[in-house]
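User: what does the whole thing look like in 3D?
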Amino acid sequence: MPSSAAWARPEELVESLSSLDNTARLKALRDVKNQIIGNKTKKLSYIKLGAVPRVVEILASDTEVPLLVQSAAAVGSFACGIEAGVKAVLDSGVLPHLLKMLSNGDQKVVEACARSLKMIFQSTLAPKSDMFQSHRMELIIELLNSENESVAEVAASVLARCCETVDHQRALADAGGLQSLLRLLKGSVKTREAALDALGALTKGNKQLCAALSSMDQGRSLATIMKLVKDKSPRTRLLACTCLANVGKASPSSFQKEWEIRTSMLSVLVKLFDEPGSVGEEAPGVLADLVASNEELQEVALDMNTIEKLGEFLRKHELPSKQLAGVLMALAELCSRFQESRRQLLEMQVQAPIIAALEHESTSVRAAACSCIRSLSRSVKNLRTTLKDERLVEPLLKLLNDSSADIQELALSAVSNILLEFTPHKAVVFRCGGVSQLIQLSQSMDPTLRLKAVWALKNLIYMSDKTLKETVMGELTCNSLVDLIFDSEEKVREQAMALVRNLVYGDEDSVQLSLVQDAVLLHAVEKQLHESTQSEICIQGLYALSNVAAGSEVHKEAVMNIIIPGTSMGVNRNTSLLMKYLQDMTNPQLRVGALWCVINLTFPSSLGVSSRISRLRNGGVEAQLQIMAEDPCLDVKDRAKTALEQFSTVEIPPR
Amino acid sequence: MSSSKKVITREEWEKKLADVKIRKEDMNKLVMNFLVTEGYVEAAEKFQMESGTQPDIDLGTITDRMAVRKAVQCGNVEDAIEKVNDLNPEILDTNPQLFFHLQQQRLIELIRSGNVEEALQFAQEELAPRGEENHAFLEELERTVALLAFEDTASCPVGELLDVSQRQKTASELNAAILTSQSHEKDPKLPSLLKMLIWAQNQLDEKASYPRINDLVNATLEDPVT
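Assistant: Here's the predicted 3D structure for the full assembly of 881 residues, as structure tokens:
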């Protein structure tokens, strides 16, 4: 065969990698290296032939410079571009050898090993926390300060990949990493980019380190990064924006001319969308970070046609996961507040790809799609029109059982939104067993999941019919709901009270639910109103009672017994639950809630109204209402007047 | 139209030009940047000695780069690949398009030498898998293999692949990739400055009549049109 003249058969070549003759070994090594570089097929076939352990063995035990350089280069190539290669070199235990070789006296060896390390650490398979063990950390910082720029560059890019948790960030900063990285910004383009990348990882979601970076060298360090936003290299621009977006997110107004810089970052990022390769893929995600919870900036983004540009991406097929997640996250942020943004996006008819992304294999894509649906579903108008596609329900419900708690949480929020009011999705959720899922999640150990599940259930039963309410309660049970009313988390208690409020709102059948099982729910609400000091919880409780008070005579009587119980001595003035809340001056909403109870209890045409009014009068309520008719809060004032009018229809009996 | 334009006389223009101070060092740097980027290593060395201008890259790397470039220009693609892999294995490992073009050039050289059997085998073993990964590569591969179908390549519609310019194209692409890997810009600054000059003159033409430079080689000022 003619081509075999150039290279020996692969099996023989692999054999020669362990030859005892140095020259033969070197030749085999070079041949393998030159065959695999750029060629995935060859990489895989040499991995199968067991070449990797032999190559690593040379790195581990040889001392001659050419052999070391060639074996390091071959290791790097095996690890470049295919995960199987990364796995193979890591399995061969190459990491300690490569790290050790970075202190080799020969610069060629050092550079070759540095490059290989960089390749390995571009993969998600590379170890992360391992690199933060004290001795390795010291080594990396030492390398970061190396005279050899390519070594410093590799150290920075390794840090960029490994620094993932707050502990990592702290360890790195404590070891002086911030200063070392800032020094590298003066280096060549590649070094600068590696340093920026690491600075981005170091500052992500870390207020302390963002503040440290802002104040470093009287703000000059941050100013250097700001200049890089307009650098010639697209990657530098992107990474500079990443760092500054982190700083801006952690501490708004932390730098001068903040507004100008942010808007220029916005336009830089939008232009970067069109860059080929990883820069264009990552730019949307950085934009998402930049505009997160910044309404003014979101408005500027709207003017730049950002929605349209992002929407176009969704129309393309097969976006890389990272890009897809970034695009969806950016859209989620931009659509979180502005109906105009939502309208623009939905008019592009990209609902189907967003819904499809809910079932994507990548966790971050699923999370981003969920956020996007959550933002879009904040508008009931959308849910009834452009977002009425019922196909979104099933994948969302599936995500309620996702392995990631973050996704469960996002899905719960989205489900909560689509269950609000009379959306067409409500019936689908019901049909697909979504109710059971929500009830299960309301028993979760995770407080956030519990909270959001109760929230969703609360939305679900709002204004629903008897059958739905009974089904929900049949499965949830009154006892579980009582447990939730006394949950360890304040927010859960509040939502559980709100759930009761919605449950007993409506026709008489609904109100009757308050009295089932010896009025266990009503008693729980009563207990909270006596004990809780949290006004949000009590407000929900008072409205629950006022909803019950809108029911039949039996219901009204039950509420009377709670809020103004009669004793053998008549009514105890000023100590009743009702008077407590009518006189509460901490939160006007509490007074409004209490007034609604009074209004519903004294509704003119009802049967026992006169006896209730006289009981309330005896309890000092009318006198209190007269005071409240001058309340500083307009809402309170109006309701008090309404109640007084109703009192006036029943004459005061002569003494 | 021209009557409404402002006229700037040659004297005024030259006075303005004289007011702009350009440092000699900056001019020298521009020249050095050109020599280095284009790979004129000997000229760069001389220029460094004579003007004291520091090159923005290690001159030793230029020699390596030129050796790689020359290998492609001579049709010795395999040699070029080995050399560039010694220089930095990352270049071809992270640049599939360049890698494909080099392999394509190898195929072209095999066809040129009339080695049909080996050319076919090479196309099948080395290039076909790349074509499977990328549709654009597949089309280029088919175009290249078409060379084999013609006895007389002069009449072949893809005959230009055998042209020297194809080698030049591949060599330039490789040269640019090596420069990028060395954190160096792949194009010299001088041509883009000239482009900016032309652009600026075109912009100015709409507003004023002034001594224009039409002859870029000698940079002579023309008299303003009035």
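In plain terms: The two ends of chain B are 11 Å apart (CA to CA). The longest strand of chain B covers residues 213-215.
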